Amino acid sequence: MSDQSPIKGRGATTNMQGRFEHQVREVFDDGWERHNDDTDPASRPPQTQITEEHAKSILTRNQSPDLPFHVSLNPYRGCEHGCIYCFARPTHSYLELSPGLDFETRLFAKVNAADLLRRELASPAWKPEPIALGVNTDAYQPCERRYGITRQILEVARECRQPIGVITKSALVERDIDILSDLAQQQLTVVALTITTLDHSIARTLEPRAASPTRRLKIMEKLAAAGIPVSVSVAPIIPFVTDHDLEKILKSAAEAGAQSAGYVMLRLPWEVSPLFQQWLQAYFPDRAERVMNRVRDLSGGKDYQAEFGRRMTGEGIWADLIRKRFDGALNKHRLKERRSADFAGLDCARFRRPLTVPSGSTENTPRQIDMF
């Protein structure tokens, strides 16, 4: 397998070095590798490894005007969905791990997340406001089936009547319809499903371990039928790869019961840019240069524009065109704009502090578990 060959079930094609690693790695073929030999462990796709950890804090705060929330919670670090465009990939560099394959195979489960949330909500310093769940990494990625951390967090939210918004690409969210329905009856939750494309062949390589686009639409129908407010996030919009699906996604989501919608243009911060370009060369070599030229047009000539107000939508003629198409589809299908609709409708006045608060140390020795 060459260094940039596609790996079945994974988004990244390499384990490129993170920018904070102390040691330099260089790929070198010494001729001993047995290509396409399934009996050779070195030739098999990388397995998922999960490290259980006790986090010291659980809530992350931001002051970004581009986001409709100021507080978020991520039960896991790294994400097995393997979305090649994920803006959170560079966070693995802080762990001296690769934002490439490590990000989707070397995961960390914050097993004390619910206890930490309970402590935060019990503190007199907590002023009730919505919490966004699963912003950096999907709270319903495959390992949630084993750990149930996200469900524990929702149980705390239900007990405390804490407003909480969920964003996911996973069918596992259906498991928690009972809790989400209870929260929805009190105007305490909204669930956003991200749909990047309706093309299954593209989705399989772009976000290889997430639910299929058709499955996500079915999830919307089930959530809406249970009285849970549903939103669709068309993200990211990738020029010449997924942009043609914008109107079709909004139409399908509205028919499935979505009440609001939002979109985000492709973002390529730090290591995401070379990883995404490797993906382009692997799956769309015929248009790779064209895609990147348009990305740079949207980002002021660079691979990524980090400035508030521009990083999510881009700038220039093409960005204006996408905005007009989005607005037109919103009006046609009677959808609200997600940023202004979702969190503003959650009721913080119902909040009550938890009756019990766990005690004890938050420190432990990380325990690693291998999973396929």
UniProtKB/TrEMBL annotation:
Q: Which UniProt keywords apply?
A: Iron, Iron-sulfur, Metal-binding
UniProt region (Disordered), positions on chain: 1-20, 29-49
Could you cite one Gene Ontology molecular function of this protein? metal ion binding
Where would I find the Elp3/MiaA/NifB-like radical SAM core domain in this sequence?
69-297
InterPro entries cross-referenced by the UniProt entry: Elp3/MiaA/NifB-like_rSAM (IPR006638), MJ0683-like (IPR040086), rSAM (IPR007197), rSAM_sf (IPR058240)
Alphabetized Gene3D superfamilies for the sequence? 3.80.30.30
Q: Which SMART domains match?
A: Elp3 (SM00729)
Q: Where is the composition biased (Basic and acidic residues)?
A: 29-38
Question: What NCBIfam families does this protein map onto?
Answer: rSAM_PA0069 (NF033668)
- What is this protein called in UniProt? Radical SAM domain-containing protein
Source species of the chain: Pseudohongiella spirulinae
